[in-house]
Amino acid sequence: MVADRMRWRRRIEQLDPARDHEEIYRISAGHEFPWDYTRALEFALFRTYCVPSISALLDATGEFRDRPQRRYDDTQLLMAELAAHGYDSPRGREALRVINRAHGRYAIDNDDMRYVLATFVYDPIDWLDRFGWRPLTEHERLAAFHFYRQVGLRMAIRDIPSDFEEFRAFKRDYEAANFRYSDANARVGQYTVGLFASWFPAPLRPMARLGVRAMLDPPMLAAFGFRPAPRWLTALSGATLRARAAAVWLLLPPRRVSKLGTSPRNRTYPGYPTGYRPADLGAPAPPASLDERWLRRDPAPEPQ
Question: What is the pLDDT of residue 287?
């Protein structure tokens, strides 16, 4: 079973992480670690809300207050479309048009966009280093970098480093310079914790809220103004995830069918992707009451 469990890893090692990054990322995120990538990307997005310039815009649109589940589902499914079908496939290009149209409405700083992109690369890597059922290979790490760099170029994000370590250093330096408390951080953070807790039965939601806080590092807790969870719960959360990884290693055979691009129990789009296109996703137009300082005044740049 162990030898068979490594079947996809052997396939990854036969590929080139620069040339074949889409196939490697599709295998890693869809066959090997679909649950882990989903959880890691949830927390990656959560991490971006520690930046006041990012959370202030999200707070001003009201999306997190009024439609947090739909905004979560739109983001998750659009990124899954790119990974499942390829960023230059018909569905991938359609998903990119939706993403670019949504972002193009707002005056978003390029460094903020670069930072969000960087979290998609490195937060899953860090998560899997701690909680994966096996270590990521160097091919998988580099493929994730090349995949999201190409996505970023098609989103017209400028000055994305061409080197893996340079982009990681940008992320680290950006967080050191920009993570700080703001009231907008606190509000968006509370909305997001509430969303995560809503996925559990009502009696379990108070514990779920504590459990989310147990997964946040000290800089995130400080930026949101959250009190740390009890130490015992933080330790238990980590131990539970490591126990899950051991069970996956021992009990689950390799997946024959990728989990990417399928979400049959989706709360907003039941049975996705059946009956849906990427164009059905995405945020509505900015509210009429939105302060003009958040709106882009010049035409959005065309993606490369």
Answer: 87
Give mean pLDDT, residues 3-11: 87
pLDDT single digits (tens) 58-72: 999 998 999 999 999
Is the model's pTM score more than 0.85? yes
- According to DSSP, residue 264 is labeled T
Nearest Cα neighbor of 28 from 119, 120, 139, 126 is: 139
pLDDT score recorded for residue 291: 86
- Cα separation, 245 vs 160, whole angstroms: 33
Lookup result for tokens 């490697």: 24
Give the amino acid at 42.
E
For 2, other C-beta atoms within 10 Å of its C-beta total: 7
Residue 88 has phi, psi (to 5 degrees) of -105, 5
Separation CA 239–CA 164 (nearest Å): 30
Q: Which two tokens stand for residue 8?
A: 């996809």
d(CA 71, CA 291): 20
